[in-house]
Task: structure prediction
Amino acid sequence: MFRNQPKDPTRLSDSTLTESQQRAMTDLFRKIAPVADELGRLFEAKGHELAVVGGPVRDLLLGRIGNDLDLTTDARPEKVLEIVKDWADAVWTIGIDFGTVGLRKGSQQIEITTYRSESYDPRSRKPEVMYGDTLEADLERRDFAVNAMAVRLPSHEFVDPYGGLADLGAKVLRTPGPPERSFDDDPLRMLRAARFASQLRFTVHPATLAAMSAMADRIDIVSAERVRDELDKLLSGADPREGLRLLVDTGLAARVLPELPKLRLEIDEHHRHKDVYEHTLTVLDQAIAQEEDGPDRVLRWAAIMHDVGKPRTRRHEQGGRVSFHHHEVVGAQMTKKRLAELKFPKDFVTDVSRLVELHLRFHGYGTGEWTDSAVRRYVRDAGHLLDRLHKLTRADCTTRNKRKAAALARTYDHLEERIARLAEEEELAKIRPELDGNEIQQVLGVGPGPVVGRAYKFLLDLRLDKGVIGKEAATEALLEWARSNDLGA
Result:
């Protein structure tokens, strides 16, 4: 399957692959050969090279077979289109300005990118794309050596000019060339290092780490959308704590998520942790531990943002205590501002900031003193975020006092039991006033307008406070409300 290659500075022999990696390669090509090899022969017949490259090769060697197939070639995009137009079932050119042509053959989706060298003008946010002529040169411009491995088609020759296989074994991230040049070409690669540390649980090579710290300000030229995507992928990784630590320790977080490193300066008022920053990372870990169906982006973002209002609300009290009154309100505002600046969708911003605002509400529950009315309001205010609020609230308990932690857990169990009971009795999630808008207008003798809205809110509060009282009693209460507010009813 693999041709033996001489050991030289630009290529590793197939004998460097372990037996399991050889099997993985064999399994891959058994799976994709009907498509990949046929495509490779098409390019070969036209005098061009073609290779599987980057992430798919890396993931394959890690035993993670994905659905994507990234190919690279010396053919220019126009030539790629010419070669595949009568072969592919569908072709798209949305990425052609960056040298990428997409296509589908049967169930296989493929992207073919021309060898290229990608770099930034120091004054620009957009990469300048220049085409290259060799596979080795194309691999050199990639972000990390573990992503700079390839397999030529149709020969299945494994190519590893920059020691990616060795790095894969050592679980280390290192740039193919000098890291300063790599990060200068595309500063986003510094965030990718943190993202891959989260996704793959790899460490970063010391020289690469030093360059990230020295060049952190270079990230400023990257667009908010690209930064957002990397942060989002980092937080969705297997170990986001380590990715966030990298960002904070290198100074990158101060430029892309400044609220996070500022937490290192704020000592928790109960002195349970070294600082609020460490507490936040623990809350993130504990929130992740409660996930049921893969990464919950809303919950994870809420976890790292839930205490960002503490630095602005910190007050020194008598007796050496420190308070952070209303930090949840301030934090919600800060969260909304930061996520909006990162260009997240509005509904995502609203959900995360709402969780930040509500994350302390449970602490007013005491040992169960809330009335049913207060429980209903808790559910109403959380809305569709109730399940996430449960998880965030539980995650926010990071005390090392086992008795106190157990007591808090029991109390929250009790609250959830009450919510479940009320929900069963009253369909709590669907609570509405007992009179709808048309009935309010009929009772008050008014048309559509602000009065109806105010009356609706009154009846909703009544419903939350008293539960179901019946339409007759609701009508009497509405008329009394109207008289007391001089509405003439």
Remarks:
- The CA atoms of residues 13 and 407 lie 61 Å apart.
- The two ends are 88 Å apart (CA to CA).
- The first helix runs from residue 19 to 45.
